Amino acid sequence: MPHYPCQTCHISRAQILRPSTGTRLCAPCFTLAFETETAATITSSSLFHPGERIAIGASGGKDSTVLASVLQTLNTRYNWGLELVLLSIDEGIAGYRDHSLEAVKRNAEVLGLPLKILGYEELYGWSMDAVVAQVGRKGNCTYCGVFRRQALDRGAAVLGVRHVVTGHNADDVAETVVMNLLRGDLARLGRGTSLVTGTGGAEGGFASVKRSKPLMWAYEKEIVMYAHHKRLDYFSTECIYSPEAFRGSARTLIKNLERIRPESILDVVRSGIDMARLVPGAGGEGGSGSLRVEAIPRDAEDDTGGGCSGDNGEDAGGEMARVEETLRLNERAEEEGTETEIRLPAKAVNGQRHDRDGLHTGPPAAALPATVNGQNHDRHTHIPDIAVVPIRTKQEKKSGRKTAGDNLPPRQRLGQCERCGYLSSQAVCKACMLLEGLNKARPRTGIEVGGAGG
Amino acid sequence: MSPSTTASAGAARPTPPPSPSAPNLYAPRALTNMSRLKASSVWRASESDMLEPAMNGEKSGRTGYRLHVLYVEDGKGDASMASKLFELVKHRYPEHTYSTRPLSDALALPGMQEVLRPHQATTQASTATPSSSDLSTILANLTSATSRTDLHQLLLRKLVVHCAQTHTCEAILWADSTTRLAERTLAETAKGRAFTLPTQTRDGETPLGDVPSYYPMRDLLRKEILSYTSLVSPDLGSLILEEKPRPAVSTRDTSIDELMKQYFSSVEREYPSIVANVVRTTGKLLVERVEEGVEGRCELCDVVLRGHAPERSRLCFGCIRILQGRETGG
User: Fold this and answer.
1) DSSP state of A391
2) What range does the record give for the signal peptide (chain B) (predicted)?
3) Residue spans per domain, chain B
4) Which of A29, A123, A306, B112 suits A229 as a labelling partner, its CA being 20 to 30 A distant?
5) pLDDT per residue over B191-231, tens digit each?
C-alpha cells in the first residue's frame, strides 16, 4: 500500500482517510480538524454563552464520550468558561448500564468533570426492570423511551442546569430524516434536524431545559476514529429489550448510502434542514440560511433517545407493520368517506392520533378514478393557499389556520402537562399517563412477592 | 415562487400557449424505463377522466386533447429492442403523434456545453451538434454511477421539457408510479436536493420552464401497474421492454437511485402504504419562495441557488457533486 503524506501538515504519514472530506490526514491533524469543526458548529450558532452550565448527556457510549472529551478540550483551548457536568440516566435494567456507567465514571475522573447518575427509580419511582415485571416485554420500550425523553431534562433540573447537550451525530440525524419521511411524520421532520431544541416550558421548571447536539455534523465513523486516536474509554451495548424496525431499516439504508457516496450523509442532513423549512407552519417559510440556531420547540415525542440504539423508545418491533396497518385503515376510511367524522372535530383529536400512531395520512390521495376530478381539484386548490401563508413567528398560534384547509398536517399545539409541567400536546403528558397506569396496578401497601430478602 | 400548482392546467395557466389548434399533450417516454413504457397504455384507460378538466372549452368529442409521444434514445440497455417496441406502440395506437430524439440533443440546449464541456466550448463553440459519443464521453468522465444516473436524468428531463415547448404542448405527462416517486424522494434527499421535491413530484408547474408536469399514475404502485398490463386486453406485455434484473455488483458501482429502487421494491412488497405515504408527505411540503428574475439559478438543473450553493457558484450543491472530481477521476 502506498504511503501518503498528511494533506494538512505534509510531514507525517497519513493514517486516516476522512469519510467526510476524502482527505488523508495524520492522527494529530485529524483530531485537531475534528475539534475545530465542532468548535465551528458551536460558535457559528452561538450555542453557548460564556460561563453557561452545560450538562452532557453521558451514556458511556462513543458519541457522548467523544462529545465530553471534545467539549472539555475546546472549553480549555478557547477559554469559553463553560461549567461542564456529566449527566447519566440509569434506566434500571439489571446488567445493562453497569458497564457503561463504569465507563462514564472513569471518563468523569479522566476529564475531571463532575458526574451525576440519576435512575428512573429516583425520577419516576419505577425502574425499567420493575416496569417490565409489570407490563411484560412487549410494549416496554414505549415506557423506556417516554421516560428517557424527560429524564435528561428532569436530571438537568435537579442539577440546576438549563442546557443539555447530547451526542447525536450526523448519521443519527440522517437516519431520523429518512425515518420521518418513511413514517410520513411532517412535524418531526420539521424538528429532527435542528441543532437546538427547547421545550419552551415555564422558566425555571425542568420543561424549559434547552437541548442541543453539537456533533450533528460529525460522521459516526469519524467519531469512532476520534475516540480511537484519543484512546477514549467507551462502552457500547445494545439494549436487551430493544428490537429494531423502523430505525433499523433507515439505518441500513444510510449505511448503504455512505458506502456508495460518503458525502450523502451530510447531504441527507442538509436535505432534512431544507425540508424542515418547508414544513407548513414551521415558521421558516422562505427563510434564508441553512443553520437554524433558534431553539425549536420540542415535545414529548421528539427523537432524543440517548443510549437506546433501538427506535426512539417506541415499541419498535413490528412498528413498520403497525404503521402500514394504520395507513391502510386511514386510506380505506377516506375512500369510504367515514373519516370526515373523525377529522372535523377539534385539532386535539388530530394531534392525538398523530401522537399515537406517529402518522397522519392527510388528504385523500389514493383517489379512486371515479372521483379523481373532484378530489384532485380539491387537493390542489389548497396549494396556492399554502404558498401565500405569511411568515409567522413560531410563537404565533395558528388561529387563522383553518382556512388553509385540512391539507395541512396537524400541528401539535403544545401546552403543559397539568401534572408535571412538561411540554405536552395533551392535558396530561405521556409520561404521567404511563405512570398513572403503572401506579394504578401497584399495590398500595408494600407487599413484596417473592420476598427478596424482606 | 409560483403559486399556480394545480391539476387543471387549462384553467390555471395564466397565459395559454399560442397554439391555435387543439392543445397538444406531451407524453415523454424512455423505452428503457419499464414504467414509462407502460404509461402510454394506462393513460388510454383513464385518460378522458383525467384529462378532460384540463381541456376546458374543448369538449367537442371524447378526446379534447392530442397526445404527442416522445421516445428519447439514450443508448442504454438494449436500444434496438427498445426501438422495435416503440414501432409496435406506434402501430397499436396510430392516433397519436410520435417522435424520437437522441438524448445527446440535450447537450445542444442553451448553456449545457459551457457547463459540461468547458474546454471544448471555448475552442470549437457550437460548431457541430453534439453526438451520442460526446454524451458517452461526458458520462464516462464522471466519477460515480450516481453522478452518471443523475446527469442522465437531468438531461432527459431538460430535453423532454424542451421538446414539449417546441411542440407547444400544454402539459407533460410522466409515467412515474408512486413507487418511482418514492424512490426519487429518497434519492433526491440523499443528493441534498430535497428542497426541490415539492416541485419535482407534485402535479403542476416545474422550475424547468412553463410547461406543467403531471403524474397520472402517481397513486399506483409499480406492482399494480405491472398487474394491469397483463389484465387488460389486448395484453400489453408484448409492448414492454423487460427489465433484466441486474446482477449483484459491488455497492460502490451501484447508484443512489439503484439503491433506492432496491429498497422500495422490498418495502413495496410488505408495506405498500408506506411507499405511498412517502410521496404524500413530501407533497405536503411548501414550495420554496422564489423571486422570479432576481435569483440566480443553477446552470445545470435550474434550481434556485440561494441557500443551496456555495457563494458565487453557478451550480447548486447537488450538481457540484455530479461534476466533482471529473478532471482527476478520468
Assistant:
1) P
2) none
3) 24-243+252-288
4) A306
5) 988 888 888 888 887 766 678 889 999 999 998 998 898 88
Question: Bridge partners of A296?
Answer: A197
The whole-number pLDDT of residue B20 equals: 35
- Give SS3 for A446: coil
Strand order in the sheet with B24-29: B97-102, B66-73, B24-29, B169-173, B209-214, B204-206
**A368: nearest CA partner in chain B:** B219
- Upstream peptide bond of A262 is cis (omega within 30 degrees of 0): no
- What pLDDT shows up at residue B209? 67
Query: Over A46-92, what HEC string results?
Result: CCCCCCCEEEEECCCCHHHHHHHHHHHHHHHHCCCCCEEEEEEEECC
Which string of DSSP letters, residue by residue, matches A130-194?
HHHHHH-STTHHHHHHHHHHHHHHHHHHHHT-SEEE----HHHHHHHHHHHHHHT-HHHHTTTT-
Residue A22 DSSP SS3 = coil
- E-strand ranges in chain B read 24-29, 66-73, 97-102, 169-173, 204-206, 209-214
- For residues B40 and B28, give the distance between their C-alpha atoms in angstroms, rounded to a whole number: 9
Residue A263 has pLDDT above 60, yes or no: yes
Other CB atoms within a 10 A radius of the CB of residue B328 amount to: 7
- Residue A151's nearest CA partner among A66, A59, A82 is A59
Kindly determine whether residue A327 and residue B273, on different chains, have CB atoms separated by under 8 Å. Answer: yes
A154 min Cα distance to partner chain B (Å): 34
| Tens digit of each residue's pLDDT (9 = 90 or more) over A401-425 | 444 444 444 445 556 777 777 766 6
Cα angle B68, B276, A179; round to 5: 130
Q: What are the domain boundaries of chain A?
A: 44-319
User: Residue B277 and residue A184: Cβ atoms within 8 Å?
Assistant: yes
Q: How far, in Å, CA of B125 to CA of A241, rounded?
A: 66
Q: How far apart are CA B6 and CA A438, in angstroms?
A: 51
Residue B89, SS3 per DSSP: helix
B291 to chain A, closest Cα gap in Å: 10
Query: Using CA atoms, how far apart are residues A242 and A140, in angstroms rounded to an integer?
Result: 9
Please compute Rg for chain A using Cα positions: 23
Contact B263, A248 (CB under 8 A): no
Cα(B231)–Cα(B298) distance, integer angstroms: 44
- Domain B24-243+252-288 = CATH 3.50.50.60: no
pLDDT grade for A441, boundaries at 50, 70 and 90: confident
A454 is written with which cell numbers? 424482606
Q: What is the pLDDT of residues A171-227, one digit of tens each?
A: 999 998 998 898 888 888 877 788 887 655 555 566 678 889 999 999 999 999 999
- Which of A259, A274, A331 is most worth mutating to test chain B (most B CB atoms within 10 A of its CB)? A274
Q: Cα(A386)–Cα(B286) distance, rounded to whole angstroms?
A: 7
CA distance B286 to chain A (A): 5
CA within 13 Å, CB half, A261: 29
Superfamily of domain A44-319: HUPs (3.40.50.620)
Q: Does A189 touch chain B (CB under 8 A)?
A: yes
Please state, as a whole number, how many other Cβ atoms lie within 10 Å of the Cβ of residue B136.
12
Pairing relationship of beta strands B209-214 and B204-206 according to DSSP bridges: antiparallel
Residue A404 touches partner B, C-beta closer than 8 Å: no
CB–CB of B49 and A372 under 8 A? yes
Burial label for B130, CB within 10 Å (0-12, 13-18, 19+), is: buried
- Secondary element (H or E) of residue A116: strand A115-119
Residue A8 CB partners (closer than 8 Å, separation 6+): A23, A25, A26, A29, A33
CB contact under 8 A, A365 and B270: no
